[in-house]
Every structure is written in structure tokens, then in C-alpha cells.
Amino acid sequence: MRVDHLAMYVNDIEATREFFQRYFNAKSNDGYHNKTTGFCSYFLTFEDGSRLEIMNRPDCVDAEKSLMRTGFAHIAFGLGSKEAVDTMTERFKTDGFKVISGPRTTGDGYYESCILDMEGNQIEITA
Predict the structure, then answer these.
(1) Average pLDDT in the 44-65 region?
(2) At the topology level of CATH, where does 73-127 sit?
(3) Is the pLDDT confidence value at 38 over 90?
(4) Over the chain, what is the mean pLDDT?
(5) Taking a C-beta distance cutoff of 8 angstroms, is the pair 92, 115 a contact?
(6) Cα–Cα distance between 91 and 73 in angstroms, integer?
(7) How far is 86 from 91, CA to CA, in rounded Å?
(8) What's the confidence (pLDDT) of residue 79?
(9) Is residue 44 within 8 Å of residue 26, measured between CB atoms?
(10) Local confidence band at 45 (pLDDT 50, 70, 90 cut-offs)
């Protein structure tokens, strides 16, 4: 058994799609749109074959995203080296994203940093 994909609702599906394409080399499908419900989605595929479905529909509720909430906490991307984490963290910072931690070595041995994307979702990048 394997996890097939993760999914998340977003406010701006096109900006989110572009974010994952620009920073994480995601490849997008052509998308799906249900004209009856207004539901839209894209499947984004990453280099290792993992997939993220981003979705939107007009009746989504945009609740506050506390970092210490229950449920899914973040998406983590392994970049392969400390240098890559440092470089990507600086790129996010330069591009105006909020870096909320790191780069640092965590108590459980990960070298990582975390940023918030344009909708307040936590993205972790690790070595």
C-alpha cells in the first residue's frame, strides 16, 4: 500500500499551482472543472512521483490557520542537502515569503526551515 496523493483546498488555485511549479518543479495536469458545483482541481506531480491535489470551490470556508491546530500541519519537501535548504530559504525570503523557522537542525536530527505560502500554509524544506 502507498499514499496516492494529498489534497488541499486553496483560495487562489492558479497562484498555488504556479507556486508549486516555480519552487518545487511540480508538473500539473490540465485540471478539472465541474460547472455545476464550481469545483476545480489540479493534480501536481513532483519529481519522485508524489502528488498533491489542489482544489477550490466557491463555498469553501477560509478559517484562520493557526500553526498549532489539529489536522495536517505541513507539507515537507526533501531537497537533498543543507546547502539546498539554505539556498531555498533565502529564495523564499527574497521573494517575500515569511520564514517561520530555520534553517536549523531540529532535536530529532532534521536540517530544515519552514515558510508560510501565500495562503498561510506551512511548507517545510529539509536536507
Answers:
(1) 92
(2) 2,3-Dihydroxybiphenyl 1,2-Dioxygenase; domain 1 (3.10.180)
(3) yes
(4) 94
(5) yes
(6) 22
(7) 9
(8) 96
(9) yes
(10) very high
The DSSP bridge pattern shows strands 75-78 and 122-126 to be parallel
d(CA 62, CA 10): 8
Q: What would the pLDDT profile of 61-113 be if each residue is shown by its tens digit?
A: 888 888 877 778 899 999 999 999 999 999 999 999 999 999 999 999 999 99
Supply the pLDDT for residue 108: 93
Cα-based angle 122, 107, 126 (whole degrees, multiple of 5): 45
The reported pLDDT for the residue numbered 62 is 82
The grid coordinates of residue 70 equal 489539529
CA distance 73 to 121: 8
Neighbours of 124 (CB within 10 A): 19
Amino acid at 122: Q
- What is 1-58's CATH topology? 2,3-Dihydroxybiphenyl 1,2-Dioxygenase; domain 1 (3.10.180)
- The neighbouring-strand residues paired with 115 are 99, 123
User: How wide is the angle at C-alpha 20 spanned by C-alphas 14 and 22, nearest 5°?
Assistant: 95
**The amino acid at 18:** E
